[in-house]
Amino acid sequence: MKNNNPPALGQKENAKHGEVFFPVQKYITRLAADYPVITTHWHDEAELTLITKGSCTYQIDLLEYEAKEGDIIFIPPLLLHSISIRDCDEFYSETYVFHINFLGGNNTDICSSRYLTPLINHEFAMPYLIAPKHPAYSSLCKCFMRITNLYSRQEFAYELALKAFLLQAIFLLLQYSEKNADFGVNTSSDKLKNVLDYIDVHYAESIQVAELAGLCYFSEYHFMRFFKKHMNMTCVQYINNVRLEKSVEQFERGNTSILDVSLSVGFHNLSYFHRAFKKRYHMTPLSFIKSLE
C-alpha cells in the first residue's frame, strides 16, 4: 500500500514531512485509473506544487479549481484540500511540503508578525492556482526550478538557499493576496474539519449520523448532503475507509490476527470486513498479510 502519494485519508495528516530541523519534503504524486483521487486532508505545513503532466481538479478550502500541466498550486497551512482526475490518462505533479516555522514563522521579528503568522492564521486570502497568464507565474516558475535543483543536488549549505527561495515564493504570492474577509468566521471548512477529527478519534466506536450532524448544528438530512458534496462519498463510506486504513496500519505493524484487527478498528462483522477490505484493496486481509512477509 506504500506509494509516493500523500496519505489518502481525508483527515488531519500526522505524518512528518522532512526532519525536525529541516521540515521540507519533496513528493512526486501520480494519479491514474488505479489511483484517481487523493481525498480531502490537511496538515500543518504549506504546499508548493508544479503540475508536470495531465490535468486535475483541486479542491482547496471546499472550492474547486481546474488545473493542468504547467500550473503552479500553493496551499497554505491547515487548509482542506484534495485532488482528483477525470478524463486524464495519467497525472503527475512535483510538490514541496514545508513548515512555515522553517522560514521563521515562530520568530518575533517583523517578517513573522506581519506576514508569516498572518499567513498561518489565514488572515491573507492567497492565490491558490497560478496559471501561466498570472503576473507572478514567470518569477514563481523560476523560483520553483531553483528549489527543485537545490533539493536534487543538495550541495553544501543548500538548505540556506532553499529557505531563501521558499521565502521568495511567499513574497511573490503575497503581492497578489488581500485581507481575508472570512478571517475568524466559523466556515463550512471548519465544520468539516471538526467532523473528520471526531471520526479520526472515534472510528473504533459506533458512530451515529446524528452525532456528526450535531457537531455542525445541522439536521441529519442537511449534514448528509453537506458531507457528500464536499467529500464525494457518503459518511458511512468515509468511516469505513478510515477503518480500513487503520487496519492496514495494524497489519503493517505486525498484528496478524484478522479478527482482532477487525474488532479494534470498528468492524464487528468479520465477513463484512473481508468484503470491504477486498473491494478497496483488491485482495483479502490474509493475502495482504502474506504480501508483507
TrEMBL record:
SUPFAM superfamilies: Homeodomain-like (SSF46689), Regulatory protein AraC (SSF51215). Residues 193-291 form the HTH araC/xylS-type domain. Keywords: DNA-binding, Transcription, Transcription regulation. It comes from Agathobacter rectalis (strain ATCC 33656 / DSM 3377 / JCM 17463 / KCTC 5835 / VPI 0990) (Eubacterium rectale). GO terms for molecular function: DNA-binding transcription factor activity; sequence-specific DNA binding. InterPro entries: AraC-bd, Homeodomain-like_sf, HTH-like, HTH_AraC, RmlC-like_jellyroll. It comes from the Bacteria. It holds the Pfam family HTH_18. This is Two-component response regulator.
